[in-house]
Write a structure and sequence with these properties.
Distance between the termini: 45 Å
Radius of gyration: 17 Å
Number of domains: 1
Number of strands: 8
Shape: globular
Length: about 260
């Protein structure tokens, strides 16, 4: 199976050093890396945030996860981390790339006690995700759920465009649920680099819509932000990661975790 257009999940896989990508994804990844040389650091640190956030939530008793925009399988996937703490944890993976779903179904097997499901669906249609029979068969929406939106919201382009989608998803989840999210930003970029990114976005050579701190923080409106709040992905509860940490400018991605009261 191939594609004549780069796909975010496969390009991300390439930056992480994976092999599940095509020439078109590598060409796109290399072009972006020439303009933003630390993009591989961004990919690694964003993945590490996913791991730390999942472990944090599992340690606080969360046993259900909906991972939207999960991407291609890599080391320490969401269900593997969650099921180390709770072997019966349940995870629903969602992605709009059919190649991701093929790999996920083949490779992402959980514990005998737990359960995983895989939905080919798009974040822009949250109702379809929430109403999907496989999600309803896997996730009990009367019990707390961790909604994982890691490095996917920036593919919802436009000022304020991500907020209503996040709100619809969170409205379906009970008190005690969590949102873990990350999104690219230009806040730490020097003006010339930010202008270069804008030009690439306008021409379609990049597809991640950067959000400033205020707009990203607003996605957690009504939630109780977990310390340290909204920070760069390299800084979220990273005390035990190798030091020194990459700078916010090197990762250029905000993240946060919030609890629904």
């Amino acid at each position: 199976m191939s594609d004549d257009r780069p796909q975010p999940a496969r390009r991300y896989n390439y930056w992480l050093g994976g092999k599940d990508n095509f020439a078109v994804d590598r060409a796109s990844g290399d072009e972006i890396e020439r303009a933003f040389p630390t993009v591989r650091t961004m990919a690694v640190e964003n993945r590490q945030f996913l791991r730390r956030a999942t472990a944090y939530l599992a340690e606080r008793g969360v046993r259900q996860f909906i991972d939207i925009g999960c991407g291609l399988p890599a080391h320490d996937n969401t269900h593997e981390i969650a099921q180390r703490t709770h072997p019966g944890a349940r995870v629903v993976y969602v992605d709009n790339d059919p190649i991701v779903m093929v790999h996920a179904r083949a490779l992402l097997t959980g514990t005998p006690q737990g359960r995983t499901a895989y939905l080919e669906a798009d974040l822009t249609d949250p109702g379809k995700i929430l109403d999907h029979d496989d999600l309803r068969a896997t996730i009990d929406l009367s019990q707390p759920v961790a909604l994982m939106l890691v490095a996917v919201l920036h593919f919802i382009q436009g000022p304020g465009a991500a907020g209503p989608i996040v709100r619809q998803l969170l409205d379906a989840l009970p008190a005690g649920s969590y949102l873990a999210a990350s999104n690219a930003t230009k806040d730490f970029s020097p003006p010339a680099m930010a202008a270069g990114y804008d030009a690439m976005l306008a021409s379609g050579r990049v597809d991640a819509w950067p959000r400033g701190r205020a707009e990203f923080t607003d996605l957690f409106h009504g939630l109780e932000l977990v310390e340290p709040g909204v920070v760069a992905v390299s800084e979220w509860r990273a005390e035990h990661e190798p030091q020194p940490r990459p700078t916010p400018a090197e990762v250029a991605v905000y993240c946060g975790v919030g609890r629904k009261p």
